[in-house]
């Protein structure tokens, strides 16, 4: 330490005689020898000095050893400048970052510190009676008046104007120490053991008594984690026994987005140009096609097998392009209802084949398949024809609004059709057209009462708040005509009479869905954990496990396109989970 201080002192003392970058030879250049005992630094300006004399004098001043050899000295006389601009200054804790000046302060000319607007003093200075700035003692800062020093509270920014024991809720966002009536939560970190931090509380969780609340704590390898984006907050949750940090949008950010959405909706009202009209009609056509297809699939009233008989392509196209009631809001975006928002619950009844009537191709009832086969199966390329591929194209076009706008002839056919007019007036169809996110209905002043609609084979519920199922993996391309079915029973040779689990080429929420290449437990109508004795796998390969999460070391056997009416030995009444794939060798299954 002394040697480093000596080198700096030599640099300062010799700056007048040595260029900015120079290899200094320790040999004397000129001047008489200087007495070690009698020379003092105060006299260095009285006579020209050699480098050896400077080294010796500075060493004596700081009671240090005189260094041997050559020193390389370099000076940079440029003033220190901050890269921070506007109302920001250099962060004292991290010089590479900038921070905002608080309300009532502004950056100094070099943007290295914030100064008060009224006194011109820094945040750690107070103004004396003679209008001078005086620095506060260590660990103290100026109070709000700037006239007295107070203890520096490291948590003052977090506490703001919250009651004792509480801090500003970081998930709220947009709050600081000056926020009036802030949203606060308990300071959970203070209740955690040393070296641990608290998990972020679940949204909207109410605590009757903060003093009694026990947070979930875990070791934290990055306790000072910060999110650079001011629109996010540090969300913490435990993973494998340690705190994991993620930056998530604050509630204020989400509210701002909703506000902007409302402004966009409001600004769009009254616009009648061609582009808006085309977009509106496309969204309506998409929603109408989706609703027609779904109601026909579940055989809702007015959409039964009998009603579909003899329906022409013109009548269908004309109906899809007819919006039955202008008081029904045009659907948002493209008019589609994402699959994961939709839950299909079959209405169970005795069946000789062990399947519900809604278990046909892609979840579409067999009556609809026959209808499309007749209507589109032999049509040309432009009409989506071509066997099963033509049927799939027609289904996709109806769900996504891909069919062209109806001709005048088709519109007239729909108006003249008693079947179409009956469908257009069916309450379930109108409910389906009307379903929309709650925020959209609220802005339009309409009741938020999305209704489920049912048919003879199933009930359909649309929940716009529903999130995608993370276990739902898309089926491989080229398997549109394939599916895996898994029958099982707790009775010998009875799996054929049970409703099977099966794969679907959609993302609807289904009670009897068989997940593709994902672990699944034997639960459908009731729990069959460790009760299965009869298994039947068709269309692919399924691996079966004694463990509840398809652990590799608990695999018992795999089955491809066959039935075992009575499992033998340790496999009987032992299945707790299974994993299925189109690969006939079950490649990819845990433990295979």
Automatic annotation (TrEMBL):
Signal peptide residues on this chain, from the entry's feature table: 1-17
Stretches for region Disordered: 144-229, 243-281
UniProt xrefs under InterPro entries: Growth_fac_rcpt_cys_sf
Organism for this UniProt entry: Polytolypa hystricis (strain UAMH7299)
Official protein name in the record: Uncharacterized protein
Residue ranges that the Swiss-Prot or TrEMBL entry lists as coiled coil: none
Keyword tags: Signal
Superkingdom of this protein's organism: Eukaryota
